[in-house]
Amino acid sequence: MTLYHYRAVGRDGAVETGSLEVADEAAAVARLRAMGLLPIRLDRDAPGPAGGLMALLNTEITPKDALGTDDRIAFTRSLATLTGAGLPLDRALEMTRDLGTRRGIRAVAGRLLEAVQGGMRLADAVDRERAAFPPLYRSILRAGEAGAALESTLARLADTLEQAKRRQSELRSALIYPAFLLVTTIGSVAILLGYVVPSFQPLLADAGLEPPAVTRLVIGTGLFFERHWAVLLGSVAGLAVAARLALLVPSLRLRWHRAALHLPVLGGLWRSFETARLASLLGTLLGNGVALPAALRLLPPALGNAAFAAEVERIIPEVEAGRGLAPPLAEARILPPLALQLIQVGQESGQLTEMLTKTGEIFETEAKRGFDRALAVLTPCLTLLMGGLIALIVSSILFALFSINELAL
Q: CB under 8 Å to 37, separation ≥6 — which residues?
């Protein structure tokens, strides 16, 4: 059994706090609903007094006008839960402000509350918080409020944000071990070449022995690293900064992103991920009442590939001219054939929104499967590379040492 500390809203709209000892979080939610309470927050461990190092680590440095991804999810989910429970919008904003655990959430909710109490619509108030909410978020919210579906729109927004956050977390988690292997490989080889290998040079010179070619190559590389490691490190850092700055130039970024889509393995993965993102976002916008041309205008900033963004911007006039969505996208040649076929079917059957959503799900699954396969191959390859490089360096030195022993005999 686990102890959970909760904050919940009662039938009268009052906030209640307390503790429950249950098996898991789902059981805690079920118990609260049986008690007639709407859970707002569940904490597994009791909050203790903050102080010392923990207080310093928990110090908030986020500007009051900005919301991080987690803050935006918490704000949206809280507002969706409260409005879905039947609370008026101003009361829901007030409770979100009072119950917010982060300064940014409290500040943004407070400003939105003042605007709504002053007679402003929520979408108009959110439009003024451009540092906290991206354009896509603001447009979906405006379409939902205009269609009198604010509660369901907020719930879908929260679900969308949580799914995106979960995908990012899964990708980061999957990359941890390969990144660790890569860093370990580079570090091990650098230590061997920079410190271990050069130490054998005087021994071989005193023996007057001409080492094997592979040994000479490894020792020369080691001496080069020992003498010029600072220049090499600076060069690598300079190239990384230069590449970063070059990608800030729109034309160079566009060229690189177009070329990257044709890379073996990685290009196909990126294309699948971007197809899933484009279809899912466009389906979400259309499902919330945003017109197709307006939805296409909102897409480019939310896409991660400049080639996809450029083609979306290019087809907007054609869509406005009445050509539909599928033919201009087919001419753009950025989407896989399956995605184009599904969009064409959805357009012809009058179910474009549903088919876009389905397309996003299909390609997200395909991209994740391809990513998992690539990682399954990358991890043993990095392991073999690390073992092979270390074996080459060590064996080259051992060959030279064996030659010295034979000479002595």
A: 6, 8, 9, 10, 16
